[in-house]
Amino acid sequence: MSDANTLEKLIRKGEDKAPAIGAPSRPFLNYEGLKALAVDTVKSLNELGIGRGDRVAIVLPNGPEMASAFVAVACGATTAPLNPAYKPEEFEFYLEDLKAKALLVEAGSESPAVAVAKKLGVVVIELVTDEKSPAGSFTLKGESFGKAKNSGPAEADDVALILHTSGTTSRPKIVPLSHRNVTASAGNIARSLRLTSDDKCLNIMPLFHIHGLIAAVLSSLQAGASVTCTPGFNALKIFSWIEEVGPSWYTAVPTMHQAILTRGARNGEIVKAAKLRFIRSSSASLPPQIMTALEEMWGCPVIEAYGMTEASHQMTVNPLPPAKRVPGSVGIASGPEVAIMSEEGVLLPRGETGEIVIRGDNVTRGYENNPKANAEAFTNGWFRTGDQGVMTEDGYVTITGRLKEIINRGGEKISPREVDEILLNHPAVDQVVTFALPHEKLGEEVAAAVVLKEGQSASEAELRDFVAQSLAAFKVPRSITLLDEIPKGATGKMQRIGMAQKLGLV
After folding, report:
1. What is 310-402's CATH superfamily?
2. Class assignment of domain 407-502?
3. Mind listing the pLDDT tens digit for each residue in 469-506?
4. How far apart are CA 34 and CA 31, in angstroms?
5. Residue 493 phi, psi (nearest 5)
6. Under CATH, which architecture does the 7-303 domain have?
7. Where in the chain is the domain with CATH 2.30.38.10?
């Protein structure tokens, strides 16, 4: 059967009575229920005045309703999931930048996004759940503001999902992903992991990220399999969830894998009884020693994958046994074409180091309203990832460095400029440069170097508290170095890359 090219067609493939979306200690929503939910949601949205191409920002806690809302809303509108931990300033930026027509929150939500939406004139729609209904079931409640311009189910080239990617030299870029993009990616992942309708995924990833949305939720639904959605990662609860759900796999970022590993010995019986077919790791580099220890603990292969928002997540993956897996490598192309390109735009032979480039149905057609970024990102139809790497003769890719300056804190991507701008709002701050500080577990941590205005004073703690008022906790610098002068490069620019070394912090 050929892959579906819309989310509505994708969920149609599941057997009616088979479990689709669940949660610990709650009954499953089956495929019949999910299909009906999608139809009802599109009808409700249309009645509220929202149709194809209209943007619905989603601010919901992690769990089955977040998963089902993403799928069902996308069947008839464009979804824009946002991190519920954002502060009012961040919600205001994203809602305005997205040109959101509506905000979807749970009934009675106390999220600051609600007040921001009302201030901006964005319609608030409430997601209402019934405790007696299966996990993931909901109805929508809101005031209609007219007739939807484009009603009915979305088509393959309609935008299903919009996410922002952090820009280092400019504001965050808008990445529109079509139904064709996300369903192609779900199919690529399902094939590379050999998912069948018997598989059970335990989702511990945040569902405002591409990783959880596509790798856990959509790839499972593509295979007619089930996904159990937890409230988010909790190292203390994951073993009891594994015992209850009996998953055949889960996907996580390296920091989560490390936390699970450290608690494995205390949960020996559960580990021994687990029936995991494999574990997947993505969003940051997995240290080979962690991979080995995880495989020994669970008695199953750990599959490392390489993904990014612009590719609807997965680009390469280490294949399952009996095929060769290469620790330290992110594996072979898994759907899209992958190549290595020189700075000048020439494809390089295998074994030579250059920029990793991709093309395929899962790749965005381009950033929204950003011709400059698109001109830099696309060369002869290839998307430039900004990552440096090398490919072996047999197609295994190893990432050797990042060309971009984005800070990758355990899979959370942070734009240094965003942190710069907040720190520069402090009355005592004159100059600032935010940069990546190597970190043993997270890969990278946020750090900043600050020059204070003459005659002014501010402590590191005061500056951190100041940033915390405007930005989510993961973006707050863990290290702030106060300097008389920030080291500059030959052209007089403050250089983020290598700043930690220049300041003797590593």
Report:
1. Luciferase; Domain 3 (2.30.38.10)
2. alpha beta
3. 999 999 999 999 999 988 876 545 677 888 999 999 98
4. 5
5. -85, 145
6. 3-Layer(aba) Sandwich (3.40)
7. 310-402
Cα separation, 76 vs 54, whole angstroms:
9
CATH 3.30.300.30 segments of the chain: 407-502
- Mean pLDDT value across the chain: 94
pLDDT tens digits for range 352-363: 999 999 999 999
Which residues of the chain are in CATH 3.40.50.12780 domains? 7-303
Task: Determine the pLDDT at residue 491.
Answer: 45
pLDDT at 206: 94
Q: Higher-confidence residue: 418 or 73?
A: 73
Q: What is the 3-state secondary structure (H, E, C) of 143-205?
A: CCCCCCCCCCCCCCCCEEEEEEECCCCCCCEEEEEEHHHHHHHHHHHHHHCCCCCCCEEEECC
Neighbours of 444 (CB within 10 A): 20
- Of 106, 307, 335, nearest to 214 by C-alpha is 307
Contact 216, 240 (CB under 8 A): no
pTM of the model: 0.87
